[in-house]
């Protein structure tokens, strides 16, 4: 059931749930961060309105820097400003930044260890009709392999706003990836948020402990697909399958404790992300579990392919990232596990505990 | 210091560069020797800095974009009193603050982490832009190689600094005409370099990059240019001061062996005895 402590939207499973784009939250967050700290500056590479950086530009014109279509300069100029003492947010599409300027990010931001905040807009396949060339599906992998880098993928407009405000003060190189389309706003202003702390949004397992080896799963998701995971959890619940849904907005540093905890409780994990399965959230979770508590896993995301033009929902459907695909993946894993005896699982469990 | 004293200092710095590279066994000889006069002029005459307080807020900032010539920066910093000359022996060794390419977080006094080419001017420009926002009076300097002018990131920064009239920024280009694959004009011709910078709204000066007085004069000239950033194209001889290294692209990324180092040091010491400034 929904975690009532988190004060999630009370319309979460209703048709008229409010929809707003994460990028709107980014734009709002920039203004609030700018009000709180005058060191905050925003640099943009010719995408001011569509990254919603124009709100900051209007409010603080002297702290806004237009760079033009030059993503390598975008990050290196920002690195210089950060070395001086500013807190620069750099806004572009994820495909260009960090897509085009990866080595500059590695050398002048991460190795140099200055607090540049990379805002990667229009991430994921849901950017839609622009097609594969503009659909950043590799950015989480690119950023999480770099030492010193914090990697964040907020789930809705409100959470994106909170991410921006908190990232402004974390003193670290930070990547924030967010999507273009209006998506359900399932958190509220009151929902607790902390970088590095994954939250359990839904839990329909705890009261059926007896069945955990066969009939429960942990869904670990990031970005707006957290909502699809919640929809899947509700459907699974109706089928008698318990689940825990974790909003893992921080991919690095990842909340190892929470991930191991839910893996132990459910015995099976499915990760959900709008990103290549290779190297993304799923890989990060698999690394944690392989080291601590291996369990069967399923991976929802792009399976080593490029996208194409289409409507966001059509694309998410076609490439298997909607709630029905999540449900089917869960069913397959449960089927596999169902074929094993309880004893096998127990001995495996003992081995790792 | 008098010009003659500065010239002598540059000669001493060249000798330590040779010793340091011999000890390290790898590194970049040609550019390091070629930039010795520029670094000497900067650290002993031009820069407002305090070796005992390397993070002094009001210091002038010197960015080294072509990180591979950092040996000459380390030697000059040691001579200026940032750290003991003995530490120069640790270049490129495990645990050293003197990394093969400079890292800001390891050695106070370095302003950036560099090595991958074409990224320094943009960082210096961002720094100069931020400093101007806050009305700070110090100046920002950036040393670039000519080879790194092949890179897109560099020209993006030239556009940026030109557009925003960063007159608190002075760039010194080490125009030594060599890069790894050969002579710059064969690899990817840069000329007319002056016309290129002018077209990007920069103020351009040319100097003999081994003439200490010309270096100092050009930097002072740049301070008086209020409209645009200034680029000083410093014509230098790669490997300057050591006959068998001078002008040869193969010495870009090579270090002398014991025999060669002995020869080089002999040559530099002999030359040192002959330094008589024309300006006295």
Automatic annotation (TrEMBL), chain A:
CDD domains: TPP_PYR_DXS_TK_like (cd07033). The keyword DNA-binding does not apply. Its cofactor is thiamine diphosphate. Pfam families: Transket_pyr (PF02779), Transketolase_C (PF02780). Gene3D superfamilies: 3.40.50.920, 3.40.50.970. InterPro entries: PDH/Transketolase (IPR051157), THDP-binding (IPR029061), Transketo_C/PFOR_II (IPR009014), Transketolase-like_Pyr-bd (IPR005475), Transketolase_BS (IPR020826), Transketolase_C (IPR033248). Belongs to the transketolase family. This is Transketolase.
TrEMBL record, chain B:
It holds the Pfam family Transketolase_N. Residues 8-263 form the Transketolase N-terminal domain. Transmembrane segments: none annotated. Keywords: Thiamine pyrophosphate. Its cofactor is thiamine diphosphate. Signal peptide: none annotated. Belongs to the transketolase family. This is Transketolase. It comes from Candidatus Woesebacteria bacterium RIFCSPLOWO2_01_FULL_39_10b. The lineage of its organism: Bacteria, Candidatus Woeseibacteriota.
């Amino acid at each position: 059931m929904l975690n009532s402590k988190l004060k999630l939207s009370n319309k979460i499973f209703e048709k008229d749930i409010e929809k707003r784009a994460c990028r709107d939250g980014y734009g709002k967050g920039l203004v609030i961060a700018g009000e709180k700290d005058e060191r905050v500056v925003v640099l943009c590479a010719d995408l001011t309105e569509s990254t919603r950086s124009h709100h900051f530009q209007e409010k603080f014109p002297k702290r806004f820097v237009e760079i033009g279509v030059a993503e390598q300069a975008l990050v290196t100029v920002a690195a210089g400003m950060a070395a001086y003492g500013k807190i620069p947010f750099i806004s572009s599409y994820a495909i260009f930044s960090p897509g085009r300027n990866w080595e500059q990010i590695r050398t002048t931001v991460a190795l140099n260890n200055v607090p540049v905040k990379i805002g990667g807009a229009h991430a994921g396949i849901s950017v839609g009709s622009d097609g594969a060339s503009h659909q950043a599906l590799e950015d989480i992998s690119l950023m999480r392999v770099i030492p010193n880098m914090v990697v964040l993928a907020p789930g809705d407009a409100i959470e994106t706003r909170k991410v921006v405000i908190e990232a402004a003060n974390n003193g670290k190189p930070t990547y924030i990836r967010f999507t273009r389309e209006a998506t359900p706003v399932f958190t509220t202003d009151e929902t607790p948020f902390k970088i590095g702390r994954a939250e359990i949004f839904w839990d329909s397992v705890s009261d059926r402990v007896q069945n955990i080896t066969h009939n429960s799963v942990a869904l670990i998701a990031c970005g707006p697909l957290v909502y699809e995971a919640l929809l899947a959890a509700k459907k699974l619940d109706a089928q008698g399958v318990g689940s825990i849904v974790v909003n893992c907005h921080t991919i690095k540093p990842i909340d190892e404790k929470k991930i191991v905890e839910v893996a132990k409780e459910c015995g099976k994990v499915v990760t959900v992300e709008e990103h290549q399965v290779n190297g993304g959230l799923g890989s990060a979770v698999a690394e944690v579990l392989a080291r601590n508590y291996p369990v069967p896993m399923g991976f929802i995301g792009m399976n080593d392919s490029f996208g194409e033009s289409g409507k966001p929902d059509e694309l998410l459907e076609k490439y298997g990232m909607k709630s029905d695909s999540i449900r089917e993946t869960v069913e397959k894993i449960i089927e596999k596990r169902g074929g094993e005896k309880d004893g096998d699982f127990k001995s495996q469990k003992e081995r790792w505990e | 210091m008098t010009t003659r004293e500065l010239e002598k200092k540059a000669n001493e710095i060249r000798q330590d560069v040779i010793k340091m590279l011999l000890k390290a066994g790898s590194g970049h000889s040609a550019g390091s020797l070629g930039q010795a006069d520029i670094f000497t002029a900067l650290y002993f005459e031009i820069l407002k800095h305090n070796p005992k307080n390397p993070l002094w807020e009001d210091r002038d900032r010197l960015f080294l974009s072509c990180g591979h010539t950092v040996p000459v920066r380390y030697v000059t910093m040691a001579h200026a009193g940032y750290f003991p000359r003995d530490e120069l022996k640790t270049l490129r060794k495990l645990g050293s603050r003197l990394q093969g390419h400079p890292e800001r977080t390891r050695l106070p006094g370095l302003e950036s982490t560099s090595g991958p080419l074409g990224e320094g001017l943009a960082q210096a420009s961002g720094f100069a832009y931020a400093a101007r926002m806050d009305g700070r009076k110090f100046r920002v300097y950036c040393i670039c190689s000519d080879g790194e002018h092949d890179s897109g990131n560099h020209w993006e920064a030239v556009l940026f600094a030109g557009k925003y009239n960063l007159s608190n920024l002075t760039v010194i280009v080490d125009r030594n005409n060599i890069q790894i694959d050969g002579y710059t004009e064969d690899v990817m011709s840069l000329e007319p370099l002056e016309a290129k910078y002018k077209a990007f709204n920069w103020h351009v000066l040319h100097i003999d990059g081994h003439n200490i007085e010309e270096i100092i004069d050009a930097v002072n000239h740049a301070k008086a240019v209020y409209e645009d950033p200034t680029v000083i194209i410093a014509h230098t001889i790669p490997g300057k001061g050591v006959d068998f290294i001078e002008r040869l692209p193969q010495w870009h990324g090579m270090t002398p062996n014991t025999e060669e180092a002995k020869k080089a040091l002999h040559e530099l010491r002999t030359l040192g005895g002959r330094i008589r400034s024309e300006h006295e």
